[in-house]
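Hello,

Our lab assistant flagged a job as stuck in the queue for most of the afternoon. It eventually completed. Since we weren't sure the result was trustworthy after the delay, we are filing this so someone can double-check. Below is the sequence as submitted and the structure that was eventually returned. Let us know if re-running is recommended.
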Amino acid sequence: ITSYIHHGGNLGVLVELNCSTDFVARSDEFKNLARELAMQIAGANPRYVSQADVPSETLAAMRKEFSEDPEVLKRPEAKRAQIVEGKIKKRLSTESLLDQPWVKDDKITVAKLVDDVIRKTGENIVIRRFARFDPFEVRQLPFDGEVGEAVGHPVRGERMRAVHDVEVEVRRVRVAAVPEQAEGLADLHLLPHLHP
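-- returned structure --
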């Protein structure tokens, strides 16, 4: 597991990169690859390791979105499916880490970068997973249950710190934003945990 913290601590990345032996895991090539992948994730913000990791629901939503696109509807019926699949492939090439062009040399993809290290080390290397932490990224989260009812409205998007428990952090932000409604939360035992 390799970490990367961007300048000023505004962005962090964790990457799990697997190989079969400790000998390769300790090699400079492997360590450099892990560092390059972490910087790639920080800079290019992929959502998936590969296109195989994209959920079928997401693919279905993309197909629906692109098939309803006015530009696609102008094309002949026989060509629409091919155009939709091309648009999906193009979008996934920016959202899939292995399909993205490498930030340091856009002539090669990240998959090619990994393959080069596999050839040098003679061992299979797999990007297992990654996490990108951006404290300024706005996410959509439900604000449900007793706390949501006590506060009186759902959270539509809150800035949160990735290190904290997201649900509790959102509650802290919301209660701090509406102190006149915090009175009803005393029974939920959340107030002692709130930041001033």
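-- support follow-up --
The delay was a queue issue, not a problem with the job. The result is valid. Confidence is low (pLDDT under 50) at residues 140-196. The two ends are 35 Å apart (CA to CA).
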